[in-house]
Amino acid sequence: MTENEPNSPFEDDVIRAVASENDVEESQLRDALEAHQRVMADNPGVEDLVYEWRRQYDDPVLARTPETFFVAVPPTVWEEYGDFLGLDDYVLRALSAVHQEQTLRSDAVDLSGMADGHAALVVSRTTDGERR
């Protein structure tokens, strides 16, 4: 995920701030963000993934825009992604923190719908400028 990539759901200043606050190299965090978005897009696909989360969790979609889903998932989802991607704990914490901060900054999201104990997860619905 390069700086100012048009299909990135994350603002550059969010990534930079979270990297700094979590003592993670910005390039390492960007690589983790890119890998995470790619995994969600490729396996099983964004729409299918969100559909499965809707079936598993009570109303997890916090907001949807043409480009992005904002969902609330239990911590086990983040743990599974961390294991699957082989991320060190500190990188996984920073990755999750980017999602939390971006969600907080989004005008589209109403956090009152977030279930207790759940964490935000931002899913890009686009790739190369096209909708998934």
Automatic annotation (TrEMBL):
Residues 9-108 form the DUF8048 domain. Pfam families: DUF8048. This is DUF8048 domain-containing protein. It comes from Haloarcula limicola.
